[in-house]
Amino acid sequence: MTIENTGLLRTGQTAVYRAGDDGFYRKGVSFRYRDNGDGTVSDLVTGLVWARDGTGRGCAFGQLLTWYEAIDWAENLEFAGYDDWRLPNRRELDSLVDAGRTLPALDTSVFPNLPASLNYEYWTSSTVDFDPFYAWYIGFDSGHVNGSTKNYHYLVRAVRGGRN
Predict the structure, then answer these.
(1) Whose CB among 22, 55, 96, 120 lies 3.0–4.6 Å from 140's, allowing a Cys bridge?
(2) Strand 40-43, strand 33-35: pairing
(3) Rounded to an integer, what distance in angstroms lies between the CA atom of residue 148 and that of residue 70?
(4) Residues 6+ apart with CB under 8 A from 28
């Protein structure tokens, strides 16, 4: 895959609350996605390939999983002709947050059919550093990041690729 953009992503904030804030400058590269026509979308900034449909195979059909189940599900996923899917880490999943949107804070023209479960909360593969019984999740209702016990049930979205 050819990466067409480089640099940090824009947050998506467009409102200006004070001269000099994020909305004032709107710095960063715009989100740029390519629909691959196979149920996936490529992020041309990060190089990641994401499952597109929030209720499709690449998102476990919208079912809620524990963190342990989510890891196993992603590691065993065969989807869109690939078998190297995984659960995204905290920074990867957070790259999908669009601060210019809420309920959800995600571009639904790129990522449609989000289940309205638990404020659109999705597991990451990242364990909370100060408590190994907790993992990070992203709440796409507002784009918040929080930790939760790994036995709790959240949504999942598979990812593949990226830069090392």
Answers:
(1) 120
(2) antiparallel
(3) 14
(4) 7, 8, 9, 10, 11
